[in-house]
Write a structure and sequence with these properties.
By secondary structure, the chain is of the alpha/beta class. The protein is built from eleven helices and 16 strands. Helix 2 links the parallel strand 2 and strand 3. It is elongated.
């Protein structure tokens, strides 16, 4: 019989507007994330427990499809931690996560929402779960770094039941990032992590969007469930803890080698590749200005492909001065604009600015 699992899911950020997308592909992107989330949060065993590690929503308040997608995702989780995107200093506002929790109370759903701390609170946000041989302590986002460190000091020695073998601390923070904004993000320093790992078998955290493991796999930064930007085209995982063996494993749920293409613009203009199954395309290279019209039309063509979510142009002109005089550039630009279809004009202007 399969051993029960604790499944840990990273950031979802429903409601995020994907850079370098169109209006249609932005909606498709959120639907893609929702399908991904629904698949990975589907329980295969009633003894499994699913924990979302924060930032289900990208903004404190979202509406429409984004709220509905986030609500459906939360329904399939047993615990949902509040992340930094679920926090606001304005206590008169109601977050999307609070709306989800209110709906759960009305409908009798069993999902537990662990809200971010608010100023002056000390223990309100800490939640624990004892499941078979494992004790899990969950700490959501804390609005100050000082407060975060104070909370970690309080939970550094887990008060686990005597019959449990393993202990896990779940967080929503950066790891040892000297550049993080302490006003809106929590940061787990190396020193803090070492102290906590004297008492916990594992630490697992959401917030960072690219996955990594440290301390011989005892500290896990889960990564997001899907890429949010072009510098996040790395494999995405679900992390599973076997409560009987005490071991973590990961399952890749999105592979950039199958869905992301980065190529020189010259290769793009001369390829017969259909880009079937590709979701993200990044275009590089030093651009000949005479090719800008062809590149504009190629990007329009790519953005209309089924399943294409974003196309980023990173190709650059060597310099305007080195290629054309100001008058020549103006005449050349005007000529091209007259040749373009309506849906290509704005993209051409955008590319012209990007290549400067």
């Amino acid at each position: 019989m399969k051993a029960p699992l604790l499944l840990f899911l990273g950031d979802l950020h429903q409601g995020l507007t994907l850079p370098h997308s169109t209006r249609a592909s932005a909606r498709a992107y959120n639907a893609f994330k929702q399908d991904l989330a629904q698949n990975v949060s589907h329980k295969t065993d009633t003894e499994d427990r699913i924990i979302s590690l924060g930032d289900v929503f990208h903004n404190f308040q979202v509406g429409g499809e984004s709220f509905y997608h986030g609500y459906r995702f939360c329904r399939q989780c047993d615990y949902v931690l509040g992340g930094n995107h679920d926090y606001s200093n304005d206590t008169t506002l109601t977050s999307s996560l609070e709306r989800v929790s209110d709906l759960f109370r009305m409908t009798g759903e069993k999902t537990n929402v662990v809200f971010p701390f608010f100023a002056g609170e000390e223990d309100a946000g800490v939640t624990s779960l004892s499941h078979h041989d494992t004790f899990l302590v969950m700490v959501p986002y804390v609005p100050t770094q000082e407060g975060f460190e104070a909370v970690l000091e309080k939970v550094k020695k887990p008060l686990k039941p005597h019959n449990t073998k393993y202990s896990i601390l779940a967080l929503h923070c950066n790891y040892d990032n000297p550049f993080c904004n302490a006003e809106i993000e929590n940061n787990l320093t190396e020193k803090m992590a070492k102290k906590l790992l004297e008492h916990y078998d594992f630490i697992i955290s959401g917030h960072e969007h690219n996955s990594r493991t440290l301390f011989d796999g005892r500290l896990i930064m889960t990564g997001a469930l899907a890429p949010m930007r072009f510098d996040e085209m790395t494999p995405k995982y679900v992390w599973e803890f076997d409560v009987e063996s005490g071991k973590f494993s990961s399952t890749c749920i999105w592979d950039p080698s199958l869905s992301h293409v980065r190529l020189d613009y010259g290769v793009l203009l001369n390829t017969s590749e259909s880009f079937e199954g590709t979701q993200f395309v990044e275009i590089t290279g030093e651009l000949d200005p005479q090719d800008l019209l062809a590149l504009t039309r190629k990007i329009v063509e790519l953005r209309k492909l089924p399943g294409m979510l974003a196309v980023k142009n990173s190709a650059k002109l060597p310099s305007r001065e080195a290629v054309l005089s100001t008058d020549a550039m103006t005449d050349w630009t005007s000529t091209i604009l007259r040749e373009l279809d309506t849906d290509e004009v704005e993209l051409f202007k955008e590319l012209l600015n990007e290549t400067k």
